[in-house]
Amino acid sequence: MVKVTLKGGVVKEYDDSITAMEIAKSLGMGLYKAACLCKIDGEYSDLRTEITKDCELQILTFDDDEEAKKAFRHTASHVMAQAVKRLFPDAKLAIGPAIDNGFYYDFDIDKPFTPDDLAKIESEMKKIVKEALPLEKFELEPDEAIKMMEEKGEIYKIELIKEHSSKGEKISFFKQGDFVELCAGPHIPDTGRIKAFKLTSCTGAYWRGNSDNQMLQRIYATAFTKKDEMEAYLESVEEAKKRDHNKLGRELELFTTSDLIGQGLPILLPKGTKIIQILQRFVEDEEAKRGWQLTKTPFMAKSDLYKLSGHWGHYKENMFVLGDEEKDDEVFALRPMTCPFQYQAYLNRPRSYRDLPLRYDETSTLFRNEASGEMHGLIRVRQFTISEGHLMCRPDQLEDEFRGCLELAIYMLKTIGLYDDVSYRFSQWDPDDREKYIGTAEQWNEAQDAMKRILDHLEIPYKVGVGEAAFYGPKLDIQIKNVFGKEDTLITIQIDQMLAEKFGMEYTDSDGLKKNPYIIHRTSIGCYERTLALLIEKYAGAFPVWLAPVQVKILPIADRHHDYAYEVLHKLESAGIRAEIDARSEKIGYKIREAQLEKVPYMLIMGDKDIEGGFVSVRKRGEGDIGAMGVDEFTKLVVEQNESKVIF
Q1: Within a 13 Å sphere around the CA of 49, how many CA atoms are in the beta-carbon half?
Q2: Closest listed residue to residue 109, CA positions, set 252, 207, 212
Q3: What letter does residue 550 receive in the DSSP assignment?
């Protein structure tokens, strides 16, 4: 007898073992057809799993659970792989995971897939769906698994099997028809449930993201249980493309790139530079109000500094090294972060407990050797500028200072309009991967316990990210997604109790003893380039007035109106308003359309009547003509919006 407790406390009894799929069918065909996955005593599992003992069971549909969505889409990736192997038998299979809103699969093939190829693959996938092939799991010993993959010529699968075989576990596979895939699962019961899918793009991707490895062809796709949901999603993707900063930022002449300069090294054009300048001045002024002292440190240092901090041993592959360690007496590297430089400012003289907290900030240009496949527009680059700060404090000051750093970050995000889009991640170390980190388990537990107490006390709604910590301490990552749903870290606040000791940073406490301060590493607005990218996407290039690189476009109707236009320009500029004149001999309708395309917040149109009355005719972005105003009245309006940093 097997007792199964369902959602709501309903208990079902069965004389013999039974699968979750059979239970779902007994509960109704609607649930059976919609079911993707199940939970048995809280553990995710395939619906085909045999239930042999009393348990709690949840039947999960696509709409119920993110893991159910992943299982559905991961199964769709198997269907894609099977279709590719039917059409291109020589293609080698790499990996095909589910991702946010879809899935992808990497293939090693002689030439890139064409749009016609994608259409054929999609058509073949429809055939496989019609076949409603069941997905059946089986396991092999590692040597048997390798032999099977050798017979199929699947070199990438062999590499993965060899890695897993070191754990002494059997290797699991899933079979659908004559197609066999290395996979741990879980999966939906059969291919027939994947009713709505679309291949969206194809791009190159290095095996395992390493540019030293083979370039593969990655096909991106999405899948849903309902066609209308997929179509709505695809429409949102098209809208996202319109907001893509990599496209829109170039069209608005905010930034560009050059192959001669290199990948991940964007050139900020005057308008983009102006926005960054506005943000930097805002950040530095606000930080100064909150007790932060500005420093300026070198862009490079000897390897000795990075060896002491631990970056040389734990981060060197991500650094730009200048020189050859085997040949040169001194080897330098461009800085990937500012912390070890600002520590030298702390060490400039002896410190007392009365000096703490000590807050150093810097508008820092940093350099990181990102993999070529990871770089995208302004989101991930090799040279960037960041609002970086380091705060040295006593243990009894730690929570208040951490709160202050978080409040500063939240204030910044609310002011620029990004706060509603963020989430929090408590990034911890991975005790099973000790080589990634410095310090002892006791030090890590102490630092993480301290951060957990602070986050819980501040009621921060965080997720835990094991293995996401910096090599020297845990951190709170403020995460944000771009228009395509890719999540990146915008702001970090880290607790560090290890580097102060390594650098000999001490203070004399009230009891006369020498002690190491806690260090809080923090950014207040994050990387300016990434922030600009997110602002372009957030506002679709129509920036709030206080951030707009050009706030006012002055449009004289005819040449005889130019003198008055320049008088108005000088008044606006004297008030700190960023304005331009379109003095071209073009029709006024053409000038208005051009200004609209540039997404300028205000247009001032000037004709004979405006000059006679000493007025300007005002057009507001998104509203059109709002009537005539005096120049002083209009100037006051824009100045107030600058000062209040209003968002519209």
Answers
A1: 23
A2: 207
A3: S
CA distance 155 to 141: 18
Measured CA to CA, the distance from residue 31 to residue 291 in angstroms comes to 59
Residues 6 or more apart whose Cβ sits within 8 Å of residue 581 = 553, 554, 555, 556, 562, 565, 566, 569
pLDDT at 433: 85
Distance of alpha carbon 298 from alpha carbon 321, whole angstroms: 15
CA 462 distance to own-chain centroid: 16
| Per-chain mean pLDDT for the chain | 92
Rounded to an integer, the average pLDDT of 613-621 is 94
In angstroms, rounded to a whole number, what is the distance separating the alpha carbons of residues 603 and 605?
6
Confidence of residue 108 (pLDDT cuts 50, 70, 90): very high
Tell me the two tokens of residue 632.
């002083």
Instruction: Return d(Cα 157, Cα 171) in angstroms, integer.
Output: 11
CA distance 579 to 568: 10
- pTM value is 0.80
Q: How many CA atoms lie within 13 A of 52 on its CB side?
A: 2
CA distances (Å), origin 591, targets 436, 583, 598, 621: 58, 9, 11, 14
Q: Which tokens in the block code for residue 519? A: 């260090």
Nearest to 333 by CA among 318, 317, 322, 344: 322
Is the per-residue pLDDT at 107 higher than 90? yes
Q: Provide the token pair at 394.
A: 């006593």
- The predicted pLDDT at position 374 comes to 75
Among 456, 466, 478, which Cα is nearest to 428's?
466
| pLDDT, tens digit (0-9, with 9 covering 90-100), for 15-65 | 888 988 898 898 888 888 899 999 999 899 999 888 989 999 889 899 988
CB 407 within 8 A of CB 458: no
Q: Which residues contact 132 (CB under 8 A, 6 or more apart)?
A: 190, 191, 192
Average pLDDT estimate for 167-190: 90
User: What is residue 615's predicted lDDT score, i.e. its pLDDT?
Assistant: 92
Contact 556, 581 (CB under 8 A): yes
Residue of 220, 218, 211, 201 whose CA lies nearest to 109:
218
Q: What is the dihedral of CA 44, 45, 47, 48, to 10 degrees?
A: -170
Tell whether omega for the bond before 142 is within 30 degrees of 0, i.e. cis: no
How far is Cα 254 from Cα 533, in angstroms, rounded to an integer? 10
What is the chain's length?
648
Instruction: Show Cβ contacts of residue 350 under 8 Å, excluding neighbours closer than 6 positions.
Output: 508
Q: Which of 317, 301, 302, 309 is nearest to 439 (CA)?
A: 309
Chain segment 110-151, per-residue pLDDT in tens? 999 999 999 999 999 999 999 999 999 999 999 999 999 999
249-256: which pairs have CB atoms within 8 A and are 24 or more residues apart? 249/377, 249/378, 249/532, 249/533, 249/536, 249/541, 251/541, 252/536, 252/541, 252/598, 252/599, 254/532, 254/536, 254/549, 255/378, 255/532
- Residues sharing a CB contact under 8 Å with residue 147, sequence separation 6 or more, in sequence order: none
DSSP structure class, residue 133: P
Q: In sequence order, what are the residues at sequence separation of 6 or more whose Cβ sits closer than 8 angstroms to the Cβ of residue 106?
A: 94, 95, 96, 205, 207, 216, 217, 218
Burial 207-226 (b: 16+ CB within 10 A, else e): beeeeeeeebbbbbbbbbbe
> Residue 38 forms beta bridges with which residues?
45, 59
**What is the reported pLDDT for 482?**
85
Angle between helices 562-574 and 631-644 (to 10 degrees): 40
Classify the C-alpha dihedral 471-385-256-538 as positive or negative: positive
